[in-house]
Predict the structure.
Amino acid sequence: MVDQISSPDTCRVCGASLNREEFPIDSLCRRCAGGNESQVSEIEPALHPSNPIDFISESRPIAEPDPDDPPWGPFTGISVWLVSVAAIIVVPVIAVALWLVIQTARGAPLPNFTARDEVEQWVMSPNILLLQLVSTMAAHALTLAICWAVVTKMGSRPFRASLGWSWGGRRVWYWIVFSGCTLLGIQILSQVLIRFLPERESPFDQLLKSSQQVRIAVAILAVFTAPIVEEVVYRGLLFSALRKRIGVIATVIIVTATFAGVHVFQNRGAWVSISGLAFLSLALTMVRARTKSVLPCVFIHTLNNAFASVVILINKGS
């Protein structure tokens, strides 16, 4: 039976008729007002919640964000990617320009900028290369800040939950083994392709041979900043935005090719190395599509770069 709503002449707790002369206050009968105060105190909060917002929030829990259905679209995702590429070009250029200004003010000798060979030699000098690498770390920090602003809408949305920040239902050991298998796959692919594809010294190889300080800076960059920034941009914002509109297969192909393509310039001529990067990109993008999370991608990318960095430091860039 449905309880009737009490009228002004009935007790607001039990519904009994009230004698207004005897009980002029609080709309309670004698039993509810005096004989059973504990019952009144228990019923009262339910009848009159002190905070209606709390009542609504308990009855309607907030849903977790879906990384495959983000609030940003393809235009935003592509724009953030373009900004990330521009940052690693523009920020080092600005750093070198500022260094030139400082050196000019100090009266230090500068190269003849009308002689191309002299300029190229100066640009590839260890000090200038080291400056470019350090400024690239600053570019990564700037890119990550922009990604945070877009994903969270300046703090109004959760960052990690919106991108997907879990282990995808697997333990860490699973991803360690997966990383090892990915590295093994890259090595096997390289040994096969080296018989068919040209492999000559690339600008990145020349960078590594410049000095030990440069190699250390490359290792720090590759392990501590590049994996998280690149995964947030490529497998985070860009993947989510494209996945929402064009489907998973097309998105995997585009993101894989885009990541590998960005690395072609610094590895031009070393087609076996580029093929290895494409293989890594495909593995990472498929993991993102499978798990709906960028955390395993960051982890795998970091382990891959850490292995490569150890090899670079041991072999002195060769």
In short: The chain has 13 helices and no strands. Residues 1-43 form one domain. The CA atoms of residues 64 and 210 lie 49 Å apart.
